[in-house]
Amino acid sequence: MSRRPLVHAIGLALLLALLAAGCDNMANQQKVNPYEVYPAASNPLPPLRNPPGTVARDQQPEPPPPPVTLALLERGRQRFNIDCSVCHGFAGFADGMVVQRGFPAPPSYHSDRLRKASIQHYYDVITNGYGVMYSYAQRVSPEDRWAIIAYIRALQAAEDVPVSQLTPAERAALK
I want to staple 147 with a disulfide (CB 3.0 to 4.6 A). Which of 34, 76, 95, 109 is the partner? Predict the structure, then answer.
């Protein structure tokens, strides 16, 4: 009987034993987690914070709101009429075409709650959706979201102007 298969079997068993001994539980690697407390330390470190400007790999940085210009409002009106008016209506009173056909009405932009809402609230709703509204993150670019929000604020401000402050030509246009 040849010893060769026995030597190979012993060698293979030894190799497997060495590989198994070298493996560790990958879930329990030594690392420092944010806000982790080390009671054994005499001088515990403050919680770790990400450096300013850090963005997760799968997250794109959100652009800051641009200054409101006439061009931004025009772009916002255009995008609002395309993406938002079907539910919210052209003036933001939640009377869009799909609502007139039985779809649940969104809140009016002229309600006290939405007049007081921050622009970040609107940005988050456009990005993530809210209630029956689905996310527009893939449909509306971040720059266009800010333009739409500026236009929504213009719609809200337009409702605050009393008729007495309008010029005679503007009053005639209302009739």
Answer: 76
